[in-house]
C-alpha cells in the first residue's frame, strides 16, 4: 500500500528544490516565457502536494479510496513535468500533453468531491 503522506512530503521537497533552482539557477539561462513555465509547474506541484497531504490523511482515516491520490499524482507529474521539460529544451509541441495532466488533476478533485458527498449521504 502506498503511503500518500510520504509521497506528498517528497513532492513538497521537490517543489521547494525546483522552485529555488528556477529562481536562482535558471534565471539567466532561459527566456522569460520558459521561466514562467517553470514557475507555473512549481506552483501546481506545490499546491497539489499540499492537497495530496490532505488526501493521504483522508485515505488513512478510511474516508476515501486511493483513486483521488492517483489522479492527482499522475496529473501533476504530467502537467508539471511537461512544463519543466519544455523549459529545459524539450520541443514546444511537448506542451500538448500538459492539458492531459490538468484534466487528471481536475478529475482527482472531482473524485474527492463525489467521495465526500457519498460519505455525507451515508452518514445521514
How does this structure look, described?
The protein is an all-alpha fold and 124 residues long. The chain has a domain at 42-116. The protein contains 4 helices and no strands. The chain has helices at residues 4-25, 32-60, 67-87, 98-122. Helix 1 runs antiparallel to helix 2 (32-60). The longest helix has 29 residues, at 32-60. The mean pLDDT is 95.
Task: For this entry, give a set of tags.
single chain, 124 residues, mainly alpha, elongated, transmembrane
Brief account:
The protein is mainly alpha-helical and 124 residues long.
Strand content: under 5%
The rounded distance between the terminal residues' Cα atoms is 30 Å
User: Care to count the β-strands?
Assistant: 0
- Runs with pLDDT <50, length 5+? none
Element string (H = helix, E = strand): HHHH
Which outline best applies? elongated
- Report the structural category: mainly alpha
Q: For the residues shown, what is the average pLDDT?
A: 95
Provide a count of the helices.
4
How many strands, what sense, and barrel or not for the largest sheet? none
The radius of gyration is 16 Å
Q: How helical, in percent, are the residues?
A: over 70%
Amino acid at each position: 500500500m502506498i503511503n500518500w503522506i510520504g509521497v506528498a512530503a517528497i513532492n513538497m521537497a521537490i517543489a521547494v528544490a525546483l522552485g529555488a533552482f528556477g529562481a536562482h539557477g535558471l534565471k539567466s539561462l532561459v527566456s522569460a516565457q520558459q521561466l514562467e513555465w517553470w514557475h507555473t509547474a512549481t506552483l501546481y506541484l506545490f499546491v497539489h502536494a499540499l492537497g495530496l497531504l490532505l488526501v493521504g490523511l483522508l485515505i488513512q482515516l478510511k474516508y476515501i479510496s486511493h483513486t483521488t491520490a492517483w489522479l492527482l499524482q499522475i496529473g501533476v507529474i504530467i502537467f508539471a513535468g511537461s512544463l519543466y521539460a519544455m523549459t529545459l529544451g524539450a520541443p514546444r509541441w511537448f506542451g500538448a500533453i500538459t492539458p492531459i495532466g490538468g484534466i487528471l488533476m481536475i478529475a482527482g478533485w472531482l473524485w474527492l468531491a463525489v467521495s465526500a458527498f457519498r460519505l455525507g449521504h451515508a452518514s445521514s
